[in-house]
Amino acid sequence: MGRFHGLIGIVLILGIAFLFSNNRSKINYRLVFSGIALQVLIGILVFKVPPVTWFFQQVGHAMGKLEAFARQGAAFVYGGIGVSQPPTGTIADYASGGFVFAFNVTATIILVCVLVAVLYHFGIMQRIVAVIARAMNIIMRVSGAEALSNVASAFVGQVEAQVMIRPYLSSMTKSELLASMSGSLACIAGGILVVYANMGFQAGMDIAPFLITASLMAAPGALVISKIVFPETEESVTMGRVKMEVKSNYTNVIDAISHGAGDGFKIAMNVIAMLIGFIALIALLDWCLIHIGHIFNPHFDLSLDWIFGKIFTPMAWAMGVPADDVSKVATLLGQKLTINEFVAFKSLTTHKIDVVSPKAVAIVTIAIAGFANFSSVGMQIGGIGELAPDRRSDLAKLGLKALLCGTLASYLSATIAGILLG
User: Which family does it belong to (predicted)?
Assistant: First the structure.
């Protein structure tokens, strides 16, 4: 079927969402179709309009520069361990230095968090988010609160995005709450996006344009899926209006830099701890599974990757992944959902799971570029629950629905991109 094979995936993804809908008669099909149209428009602009394509290529190159700048800070702290030392004691091009994940990746996260904090302090971040959210509010006719949180999730972390709508959390409808949670799980924060882009650069893979596309398409995609799964039946207090508090919480720019660096460090240490824990646990489980497999066949090496490859194969095939890469992409989809996206990107960019076709690389990059995994659900319930304690029970009830919606939203974006790329 070639290019339009992905239409099967779109039907499958929307069909799964429809199957899990709690009120099929109330689904707003205008919202659904306008959201999908917005995703298609974003994809066309990024992939098919040369000036826009060129712009996002330049953004991707800028991400590489950020990693080079972060190396200079890492070089001062870690010396010759994490990056190459300048041979003459002068400033050198650290982009050509060695790569140690714990040092280089965490340095990039800290730098990006500092930049986001500075932009937030000057009100630039809030204004960008408000403008995009207002456009989405007009096109899709969603409420201001859910539009703001979904758009904000493309720039900041999944809990930080909810801080921007904190005044509305207690009064949000359950449908709005699910849409906000789904958007945060489908999107990927700017700091982490830069990290994945640079992991790709280290492996000679230019996946930055696909990551940016995933981030842009995730917000309308999450709203489409969540509004099918949980249609709006209540009256929203922010329907038809988008209002954001622009005031900074920082005393001055130095305070913003300090808080940004501190927040970045916490995120970086959490990433390191999470990866050590999960990868070690995977090694343990694989050891157990191999021995179980050998009971039945001495030559059968059963593993989590093998299991994921079988379970997610139908979805990978329906999304339009070329036949030779279907099982590999399926494995990465499984890693992302059940473990986390860091492990999936590590497998992709280190060629542990070697996806060959450019189209398959594009589809899987967009499909796994999101926070939708089981551990993130716990983070959301805990984090948003602290912002709005009275909604904790609702958050717990909606947690798995949000995971489903965030996952399907990423798959929808990836499938549309696959169709456009041919």
Answer: Belongs to the concentrative nucleoside transporter (CNT) (TC 2.A.41) family.
Residues 319 and 415 sit within 8 Å (Cβ to Cβ): yes
Q: Quote the domain boundaries for residue 242.
A: 4-421
Helices H / strands E in the chain, number of each: 19, 0
Give CA angle at 6 (16, 331), nearest 5°: 70
Report which DSSP code applies to 20. Answer: T
pTM: 0.83
* Cβ contact 405:186 at 8 Å: yes
Q: What is the mean pLDDT of each run of 10 residues along the chain (422 residues)?
A: 83 96 92 93 90 82 76 74 48 48 76 84 79 80 82 75 75 90 86 82 83 89 94 79 67 89 83 79 88 88 86 93 92 88 88 88 93 81 80 88 94 94 82
Q: Hey, which residues does 324 pair with through a beta bridge?
A: none
The pair of structure tokens assigned to 216 is: 């842009």
Q: Are 201 and 105 in contact, with CB atoms under 8 Å apart? A: no
Q: What is the pLDDT of residues 326-369, one digit of tens each?
A: 999 999 999 898 888 888 998 898 888 888 899 999 999 999 99
Angle at the Cα of 143 from the Cα atoms of 142 and 147, rounded to 5 degrees: 75
Alpha-carbon span 411 to 398, nearest angstrom: 20
% of the chain exceeding 70 in pLDDT: 91
Encoded tokens for 64? 């590489």
Among 164, 195, 191, CA closest to 180: 164
Per the document, the length of the chain is 422
Q: How many CA atoms lie within 13 A of 376 on its CB side?
A: 31
CB pairs under 8 A, 24+ apart, for 396-400?
Answer: 398/174, 398/177, 398/178, 398/181, 398/230, 399/181
- Count of domains for the chain: 1
